[in-house]
Amino acid sequence: MTHNLSASRLNKAFASGELSAVEITEAFLARIEATEPAVRAFLTVTADQARDRAKKLDGRRRNGDGEIGLLAGVPVAVKDNMCTEGIRTTCGSKILGDYVPPYDADVVERLRAAGAIIIGKTNMDEFAMGSSGENSGFWPTKNPWDPGRIPGGSSSGSAAAVAAEQVTLSLGSDTGGSIRQPAAMCGIVGLKPTYGYVSRYGLVAFASSLDQIGPFARDVEDCARLFEVIAGGDRRDSTNAGRTPPAIKLGGEPSLKGVRLGVPREYFGAGIDPEVKARIDEAIVKLASLGAEIGECSLPHTEYALSAYYILAPAECSANLARFDGVRYGHRTLDSGGLLEMYMKTRQEGFGDEVKRRIMIGTYALSSGYYDAYYKKAQQVRTLVIRDFEQVFRQFDALITPTSPITAWGLGEKTDDPLAMYLADACTIPVNLAGLPGISVPCGLANGMPVGLQLIGKHFDDHKLLQYAWAYSKAAPFDARPPLGKGDK
Amino acid sequence: MALTRSQVEHVSRLARLGLSEVEKEHLTEQLSRILEHVESMNRLNTTDVTPTYHAVALQNVLREDKPHQSLDRAKVLSQAPEAEAGCFKVPKITEG
Amino acid sequence: MATNWETVVGLEVHVELSTETKVWCGCKNEFGAEPNVNVCPVCLALPGSLPVLNATALQYIIKAGLALNCTIAHFSKFDRKNYFYPDSPMNYQISQLDLPLCRNGWVEIVLADGSTKRIRINRIHLENDAGKLLHAGDDVAEGESSLVDFNRAGVPLIEIVTEPDLRSAEEAGLFLNKLKAIIKYCGVSDVKMEEGSMRCDVNTSVRPVGATEYGTRSELKNVNSFSAALRGIEYEAKRHIALIEAGGTVDQETRSWRDAKGVSVVLRSKEEANDYRYFPEPDLPPVVLTEEDIERVRATLPELPDAILRRLTTEYGLSAYDAAVIVAEKESAEWFHEAVALAGAGNAKAVANWQTNELNRVMNAKGLGPDQIPVQPRQLAELLQLMEKGVITGKIAKTVFEKIVETGKDPEVIVKEEGLSQVADEGELAKVAMEVVVANPKVIEDWKAGKAAAAQFLVGQMMKATRGRANPQLAVKLVTEALRQHTGQA
Ligand SMILES: [Mg+2]
Ligand SMILES: [Zn+2]
Questions:
Q1: Which residues numbered 139-168 in C keep a CB inside 8 Å of some CB on A?
Q2: What is the value of pTM for the model shown?
Q3: Which of A319, A352, A437, C478 is the right S-S partner for A462, CB 3.0 to 4.6 Å?
Q4: In this predicted complex, what is the ipTM?
């Protein structure tokens, strides 16, 4: 079955002519058509553009002009908060329901340059605010492992699409766990790169100092391949570090000899599902068997990271989302007398509950008289969280934690308890506050649903994380497939 | 700290975000709970701690003063809710 | 007994920098283009766009800061200033709150009595301009709907904030003119108030003479010309005094100046004062400058008005007044230096006289701007030479000057065409002298009677007869001879 082949395999098949880009594209479009009613991962399927693109790729390959890119012939899905020229980009929000950007995000340019076939734009929590995908302004995406459960979020569609083999690779964005958490809950690999490794140019900002784009894939090699394509310098993003990652060598005998891995006890506290804890413990044993030196450690300020995040992210978003005002693009209310009313109604109609909640928290936290108590305090706590990591990274090369303390919950289960929803991100948020790289790899099932193992590394050690994750995935292969996939095996 | 309804109304005006009566009610309650949780930060003494604004420190990122290709006006205005005479059109300005 | 009131004024002056491109994006920074042609994802705040600081804008604000005697910050950052308005695409302005690039500067002004006064500058920071709202009426609130043009959105602005050191509209005027001159000398802006590249908000308060506390101030916005600023200050001072003397109090409020009507109206009271929710701009890293960086910019500073003025008075011995007039505009100072270079340092005073008298008179009469000087420095130099060589008289020179202004032709050409060169031919002039004498028997009697004025009169007649071209010394000699001859005296 074409749709369950890896990106590296598809790329080879295309290069050798074994499979044409058109054949590949048709196979995935068919797969999407067959599975989409159950998954609902896509907001836009760009079938026509994908077909044209595939024809061009085949033509070029036949005439042998231009070398074959790393993703030539590989279908990729893009989270709908990354701008695609001429293709609707909604951020999962009604306020951008029919917005068509006049330019490509840096990552999209890189995908095209690498020969990827962009097959669609994926569903997401509105403006990437959420952990379940249920905050989409359009519809909730379902978890391919159990349509009654959430796929995780906010990159719900990108994770579900890869898990359901609707596409081989996809891009997500991660502000507090929005790549790693859905990757864990959908049983796939997701990398949140070091802040500044991947350009944010063209990524619709949620919280600028925390946002980072990253890859989803079903195996670590594919994840590394997509990371190599999207990472690198871009002068259009002033927070981009201008660094190109070193070539990532995966292969040979999986070994972690001499690698020091820390286990921060704060990540195994109350609220962690015992089944999840069991899987992580097994993973730790497996890592040790590969030669890694495992040691316990402590990140004492972890419990405060969540609080800092829920001030900083809303504060930044309250300004970032101010531009959605019904003046230059997007939704404008039909009944407005004056300008003030137009602003108020347009934004009331255009934004969903969670976005409103965060705009309100952020605006309040920044308003006169409260800045020091909330925003400044949170930035100071952020400093303490960073110091914690600096401490433990003196003794360890990377840290291992659960990606999420719980597995995917039922649709609608937490929707009326925002705080409970926020707590689900406790293991991923500190990583964003510190700008560190984090990867989630599947490490088995807990009560029938996938569990993710999170590896956290030092700034710009993304390539090492990928090597560790690769070694682990070779030693502990995760070959379970969601029911959706089974029929085709 | 518990938020009052009038605070919620003040903030919604600052944020130019209209709210229904029901939304105001919910938000007054939810924001109060969230802020209460957030205030756990106050258990930490941060007097001499310098705030972090950028997790990965960079400085002096500059652009050369060279013109680029601007966007085609028609393309830009095609996205506008209301346009006239090559401009974006907005309703009567009801406030300074 | 009536109190004597003192007006206290502080200014916030916004100046657009004349960079090639905008401050956060590469769109052209140009005035008067078709609406919305210089726009891109960044300056339209399209989703996903990000700002990148223009290196020249950074250099320009440092340059201005140094010219205004500021301390340049070694560490500076940007902040978001949040407020909704349709001309502000992001609905926040990227500005600088607590760590501006420049601090603690000053500008020296010369008061009417010739004494000098330092006006302290609290800070100068870098930020972006907003777009333009086009609507009916000079009053935003009067239009039924507004049109927005974003060409100006993202143009680099520096905001110069003074201490409340100004004590009258006149002082404010002197300060603004001096500030304008300095900025223009730096070449970082064309500072044209009429094109909006220089705008100011005025903070006015009054207090009894001798008081040490400041009174409550009102902020005047929408002040779009020098004269408006001055009228606005006078209006506000009068308004405050009237309020207080009527037993009332001044409210701290933001008001809008309606220049047409010559009044100010309330825009915002202190209560509803904007809550800008400033916070550090996460999209822009800080600016860190070493002493070397700052010195490198200082090295690019041109000679500034104060220095030039000192040089003109000491080096060329010009009067403080003439020097001040010449230095007031960059173009006129450049014109002066070019003319002196051609005419020789010895002629510096002469050049200054012509420039501050004849030239300025003509330019004022014709309403010409400083960049529209109608005579070339070379042409004045030639004119001075013709006088030195005795080719034309001082009187004729003025005529020639007028002709240069009218026709743009060079002095020599004009003198030739109009036959204006002096008549020094003794024979020819002797004839004229005799004719004049003969034609005035009455005067001859006076002369006989010893009235010296008589001879003067006849010389005048000779000048008339020769249209001013007679060599004056020669004319005197010949008239005397003619008189002697005619009256037979030897
Ligand atoms: Mg300003
Ligand atoms: Zn632009």
A1: 148
A2: 0.91
A3: A437
A4: 0.97
